[in-house]
Amino acid sequence: MGAWHFASLPKKDADRIRKELTFRPRGFGSIRVEAQIGKTKWKTSIFPESKTKTYLLPIKADVRKKESIKSTGKVAVTLKLSRDG
Fold first, then answer.
1. Are strands 40-49 and 31-37 parallel, antiparallel or unpaired?
2. What distances in angstroms separate CA 58 from CA 29, 32, 40, one per listed residue?
3. pLDDT tens profile 56-70
4. Is residue 31 one of the residues assigned to a domain?
5. Is 12 a member of any domain?
6. Which pLDDT belongs to residue 29?
7. 3, 37, 46, 49 - which has most CB atoms within 10 Å?
8. pLDDT tens for residues 5-48?
């Protein structure tokens, strides 16, 4: 199990984030977020992915282990955008 995996957000959610964003993204277009999968919450950033026009969410190994996430398939994620970390 590698240290990080990246999940692609659904395009409709990425479009909504871009439309509703009220502040300027940080370096490389990243946006700070509080992410939650199951009972696990953590602070991270989402990053724009130009080919698919969505955002990538890094999910660290600790979160994947706690929430029994496999490297394939879908996972429900809640994101709260944040101006700062």
1. antiparallel
2. 15, 12, 14
3. 999 999 999 999 998
4. yes
5. yes
6. 85
7. 46
8. 999 999 999 999 999 887 777 778 899 999 999 999 999 999 99
CA atoms within 13 Å, Cβ hemisphere of 1: 13
What's the structural domain count of the chain? 1
Structure token digits, residue 45: 């950033």
> So what's the pLDDT on residue 77?
96
Residue 62's pLDDT is 93
User: Which residues constitute the domain of residue 23?
Assistant: 4-70
SS (H, E, C) the chain: CCCEEEEECCHHHHHHHHHHCCCCCCHHHCEEEEEEECCEEEEEEEEEECCCCEEEEEEEHHHHHHCCCCCCCCCCCEEEEECCC
